[in-house]
Amino acid sequence: MLSNTATRYGAAARFFHWSIALLILADIALGLIGENTPRTADTAARLQTLYSVHKTIGVVVLGLAVLRFVWAFTQPKPVPVHPERKAETVLAEAIHWMLYGAILIMPLSGWVMHSAETGFAPILWPFGQNLPFVPKSEDVAHMAGAVHGLSAWVIYLTVALHILGALKHAVIEKDGVLSRMLRGTEAGVAGGVGGESHASALPVGLAAVLWLAVVVFPFALPVKDHAETAAVTQMEQVELASELPTWTVEQGNLTITVTQMGAPVEGSFANWNVAIAYDEDTGTGEVTVTIDTTSLSLGTVTQQAQGPEFFNTEAYSTAIFTGDISRIDGASHEAVGTLTLIGKTVPVTLSFDLTLEGARATMSGTTTLDRREFEMGAGYEDEGTVGFGVEVTTELTAARQDVESDPS
Ligand code: HEM
Ligand code: HEM
What we know:
It is a single chain. The protein contains seven helices and ten strands. It is of the alpha+beta class. The chain folds into two domains: 11-220, Fumarate Reductase Cytochrome B subunit (Up-down Bundle); 246-400, Lipocalin, CATH 2.40.128. The protein has an eight-stranded antiparallel beta barrel with strand order 1-3-4-6-7-8-9-10. The chain is elongated, with a radius of gyration of 30 Å. The relative contact order is 0.11. One protoporphyrin IX containing FE binds at residues 24, 27-28, 31-32, 34-35, 51, 54-55, 58-59, 61, 106-107, 110-111, 113-114, 123, 145, 148-149, 152, 155.
């Protein structure tokens, strides 16, 4: 029999209960294993598979949960087996509602986090990866991640209480509560004391308030302050000992794009500065770019990127490019010099366009570096996890120092 009655769970309710229970327990295990696996070259591929499976199971749970809700609304709710134990009944039902909330909030928060992030492990299905209305944003991913992590604790607690309760009924009381869910046998008295077959308001209300608190709590956390446009003034300005006119950078962006698991992941440095001397008559000059590598943010993989295998920011917190500028043709220029990064100095040529409008210059350029030249990510020997090429894009505007810059 598919449908419930006042004293038994039908096959559909039991199917939903056990399929979702199994998938949720598996996903909790995967989530915990993932959280406790160190992020290194050796574990990267395994972690990707793990999170892809985790996310795929999660969205399947979400689909089943929606069907379960729709089904449950059309069904009578089996009566409590011990309606005379008021507190225990309210607790058991509140936990059921918490669990109902969990099977929606857990996968939804996970999916919002996944949608807001770039790169990393995909959901293993052909129906697209991103939810509508969720922007690619580190802040959104951070919030959703906080809801996901906090909800995980709610799940640990409620599932533990729920299983303990089921065991108490099965082992100590032997009252048919577990076999009512396992085999669909009958238990309880239809129409008995408190035997109404509708959800009572108190447990639903309790669960709703608790879930609301969990979902709202992360909004009370301080939001990380990202300096999206480079805070070029934060670092001490390097002075060039040059005869040529010097230029002060007004604003700029220094972004990098790496290929992770075949997908581009873009990030930026919040703290860097540029010292430029450039003579527009000859098209020659000098440039020094100093980058605080601890200010790198690179989506989900910021910590890995700053870790010992890549930027190793604990040992090396600064990268420096110095080069001589020469005009190639019109706006097209190049700076030929060296980049010192994680203790290695490598020749680098930065090609860029420079346009001048009076005393103001706009510069934009892109260069692709090869991480192997810096022995960066040496454990990642092929491009399966992290590509060799790192695209560096610089965009900035600068004002010639000897002339008052035009305030308009
Ligand atoms: C049945 C639903 C789900 C359950 C029970 C679940 C459970 C968990 C648990 C226990 C963790 C580890 C705890 C933590 O990192 O704070 C975790 C982490 C994670 N989950 Fe889920 N999850 C579910 C669905 C999803 C879905 C649908 C996605 C994405 C589409 C997702 C993405 C993630 C990610 C990316 C992490 C790592 C978070 C981090 O390291 O910051 N999860 N999940
Ligand atoms: C091994 C683990 C589990 C056992 C032994 C178990 C046992 C039970 C039993 C015996 C009932 C019936 C209670 C009654 O008749 O009053 C029940 C109901 C329920 N369980 Fe579980 N459960 C388990 C895991 C889970 C998990 C992981 C969830 C999370 C979604 C869950 C969600 C529910 C819900 C929402 C109900 C209310 C009945 C319904 O509307 O389907 N259970 N469970």
